[in-house]
Amino acid sequence: MSNHLRSMDLNLLPVFDALMVERNLTRAAVKLHMSQPAVSAALKRLRSTYNDALFIRTAKGLRPTERALALHPSIHTALGAVRSSFLQLDFEHREAERDFSIVLPDVVETLMIPGLSAWLREYAPGIKLTILPDESEMTSRMVSNGEVDLIIDYLPLESPNYSSLIIAEEELVVIAGEHNEKVGKSISEADFQSIPQISLLRGNPVGSPMERLARPNKLQRNICLRVPHLSSFPHIVATTDLIAVVPARMMKSSHYRALPVRTIELPMDFPKVSLQLIWHKSQTNNPAHRWLRETILQLYPELGM
To answer: Would you put residue 160 in left (φ > 0), alpha (ψ -120 to 50) or beta?
Structure first.
């Protein structure tokens, strides 16, 4: 193994990583500041090194083989660690110019990003944010390849390549319109299961926080409407006879306090849901990345209220 490593050209690994991320030879060449023939030549040497095709050309671009998919997580993590070792030990946010990308559920974007953006404009004007939705296919690919800087979500990312911290633990509550005659000041479990409800339509196969908690308890719900955005729940509830389940913090926000919507305790015991900050392990010791994580953790209690 050691002799094989000494004979290998480690300069090929960034090419492999770029091809895995871009799934396109031309885009990989642009990202690497290389010519397309040079990337093609590097791919040929990679195939020889690993004795595998690694990428199959298709009408939609390059499709990685099973061997490439197995190799990429460890190679991407190692490259991230090497890149981080060249960074400064300190990150001066007041002077820095840096772009960060964050994947967020829409309701967290609504509550958190205006306040965070205002803070950055005042204290770190060179920092730019790109906010990505959490349901797009492109985002899923970027997350799996470690391209996205941070993910903030109520659902965990089941991957050994990621680390996470809990930003906040939030209670789930039922919301109903002020004039919804099906719901009083409280709600029974039987009524909760029978009254028409809104649920979240999302790409994540484990579903919304409520669905994830309800599934092990075999809780039945009368789902009559599925929508892609949690932030629309209060507006829909305010003008219909539907009910919904949302994080309690959401309804304390100024964005929703003026709506004719009541907040009611759940009729059954459920644990709090954890809003999590998730990042690729290759970024753990990156000073700029660490600064962003610590800033969000510090500011979150005051954002969106």
So the answer is: alpha
